[in-house]
Amino acid sequence: MNPEGLPLNHPVFLALDAISSKKIYASCIKKKLFKGEILVSQGEVWPYLFIIQRGKVVAEKDSAEGRSLIAATFSMGELFWGLGFFLENAAMPATLRITEDAELFLWSRRDLLPIIEENGKFSWELAKLAIQRMQQASEILESMTFHPIAVRLARLLLEISGSGQGNPIERNLTLDEMASRVGSTREMVCRLLYKFSDEGLIKINRTEFTIVNPENLNNRAQK
Q1: Buried b vs exposed e over 80-117: b needs ≥16 C-beta within 10 Å?
Q2: How far apart are CA 39 and CA 80, in angstroms?
Q3: Contact between residue 70 and residue 94 where contact means Cβ atoms under 8 Å apart
Q4: Which sequence spans correspond to the domains of the chain?
Q5: What does CATH list as the number for 148-222?
Q6: Are strands 95-108 and 38-40 parallel, antiparallel or unpaired?
Q7: What whole-number distance in Å separates Cα of residue 59 and Cα of residue 113?
Q8: What is the pLDDT of residue 158?
Q9: Are 150 and 221 in contact, with CB atoms under 8 Å apart?
Q10: How does DSSP assign 153-203, residue by residue?
Q11: Quick one: which of 16, 7, 26 has its CA closest to 120?
């Protein structure tokens, strides 16, 4: 029987035959977590694959200097894994933290490996997904390496504003969280936000911001 809420329309699951699907259902672990909880910490061996039924999970990487970087964000319907799922005894390169109350479905390497080995299309879809993650990581690395912090911050503001031109947008991210997403410090992010404000790109206060010149902000995001 299908566990309540288990998504069946993900390409990886669609690749399974009926017998393998039953095995998937039988070995599924349903887990509820709340905002701020840690699914797994950087440095732990965590041989699991998971799909998000509800909520958001971020991959947060800490440096030796104590700074952190949000390397990826995963939301409803997305599938991800611990490094130990593919490489036995490999440690997690980042912490997986819950940023919105979440429900996850998890499978252990031990339970899924026989199914992967028996199903070529399942393996193929999982490999394609792994390649997509590598491409995303490459794009993030390129951005962090070649684009100034102001460019990265402008892109973040446009991303979280969506189509909210002229409408106040609640500041759901703290300065530290914004700094983690652009690979900088909270002090630098604060200075740049007020610089954008002085340039007439945004209006900002303690609780919200408004994009008042999206065209020029977009130009800043392209440099």
Answers
A1: bbbbbbeeeeeebebbbbbbbebebbbbbbebbeebbe
A2: 12
A3: no
A4: 11-145, 148-222
A5: 1.10.10.10
A6: antiparallel
A7: 24
A8: 86
A9: no
A10: HHHHHHHHHTT-TTS-EE--S-HHHHHHHHTS-HHHHHHHHHHHHHTTSEE
A11: 16
- CA dihedral defined by 10, 12, 14, 15, rounded to 10 degrees? 170
Which residue in 101, 184, 57 sits closest to 49, CA to CA? 57
Task: Name the one residue in this structure whose structure tokens are 């070529």.
Answer: 120
CA–CA distance, 104 with 48 (Å, rounded to integer)? 12
Which segments of the chain have a pLDDT < 70?
Answer: 1-9, 63-66, 140-147, 163-166, 223
Q: What is the pLDDT of residues 131-144, one digit of tens each?
A: 888 877 777 666 66
DSSP β-bridge partners for residue 169? 209
Supply the pLDDT for residue 1. Answer: 40
Q: Are 33 and 110 in contact (CB under 8 A)?
A: no
Residue with tokens 């800043």: 220
Q: List Cβ neighbours of 86 (8 Å cut-off, separation of 6 or more).
A: 130
Separation of first and last alpha carbons in the chain = 53
Q: Which residue has the tokens 């900088």?
A: 184
- How far is residue 154 CA from its own chain's centroid? 19
Distance CA 218, CA 92 (A): 35
> Any idea which residue has 């909270």 for tokens?
186
Phi and psi at residue 211, to the nearest 5°: -85, 115
The CATH H-level superfamily of 11-145 is Jelly Rolls (2.60.120.10)
